[in-house]
Amino acid sequence: MPLEWEQVIVHSVDPAALGRWWAEALGWVVVHSSDDEFEIRPAPDRLPGLDFVRIDEERKAKSRLHLDFRPDDQEAEVARLVAHGARRVDIGQGDQSWVVLADPEGNEFCVLGQRRQ
Q1: In this structure, which of 5, 17, 43, 49 has its CB flanked by the most CB atoms within 10 Å?
Q2: What is the pLDDT at residue 91?
Q3: Non-local CB neighbours of 105 within 8 Å, separated by 6+ positions
Q4: Greatest CA separation found in the chain?
Q5: Comparing 60 with 39, which gets the higher pLDDT?
Q6: Strand locations in the chain (E)
Q7: Are 39 and 50 in contact (CB under 8 A)?
Q8: How many helices (H) does the chain have, and how many strands (E)?
Q9: What pLDDT does residue 1 have?
Q10: 22-59 pLDDT, tens per residue?
């Protein structure tokens, strides 16, 4: 029996605000919205998606899961995301080819450098 990857759940104190931020950052569409849940996908019928689910407490520790993105132009994409409200963060990565950013609720994600041929 094969498994299909449906979505990644992101706990959030404000699912709609964070979900809208990610939808705009990724150019994705909203497929579900309620008071406690906000789901986005690359297209309405395309998986996997990101599902932002309300949690009443602020994040207290480093995320155990984060997303990595590989753009065509790392420098331009980092600048775009920072202008959109992301912030650079230091999680002890040192001097690497990727850039660590955090979304408005502090969830870390990486913008990778150019793929090695």
Answers
A1: 49
A2: 81
A3: 12, 13, 14, 18, 59
A4: 45
A5: 39
A6: 7-12, 29-33, 37-41, 49-54, 67-69, 87-88, 99-102, 108-111
A7: yes
A8: 2, 8
A9: 67
A10: 999 999 999 999 999 999 999 999 999 999 999 987 77
Only one residue has tokens 């420098």, namely: 75
Radius of gyration, CA atoms only, the chain: 15
Task: List pLDDT tens digits, range 64-91.
Answer: 788 999 999 999 999 999 999 999 998 8
Half-sphere exposure of 1 (CA within 13 A, CB side): 0
Q: Is the backbone peptide bond immediately before 48 cis, with ω within 30 degrees of 0?
A: yes
- Give 32-62 as a 3 state SS string: EECCCEEEEECCCCCCCEEEEEECCCCCCCC
Domains, the chain, ordered by start: 1-55 (3.10.180.10), 66-117 (3.10.180.10)
If one compares 97 and 69, the residue with the highest pLDDT of the two is 69
Q: How far is CA 62 from the centre of its chain?
A: 15
